């Protein structure tokens, strides 16, 4: 039997929950680390990947807001 975390990983890896990007020159992909699991697959050996990290600050909330009472 899988652990709780193992069941969660198995669930989110289902095809209906995955997105595979077909890269074209000039493409840029953004994701929200707080709400998304991400990894790279299929990068050919010797291909350079450029990864830039950006942090956005402010008092604007995007997406679902969890209310506390």
Describe the structure.
With 69 residues, this protein is largely without helices or strands. It is 13% helix and 0% strand. It is built from 1 helix and no strands. The longest helix has 9 residues.
Descriptors:
single chain, 69 residues, little secondary structure, 13% helix, 0% strand, flat
Beta strand %: under 5%
Q: How many separate helices?
A: 1
Distance between the termini: 37 Å
Portion in helices: 10-25%
Average pLDDT confidence is: 78
Order of helices and strands: H
Number of strands: 0
Round the Cα radius of gyration to an integer and report it: 16 Å
- What does the largest sheet look like? none
Summarize the structure in short:
The chain has one helix and no strands. The chain has 69 residues and is mostly loops.
List the topology elements.
Layout: H1 4-12
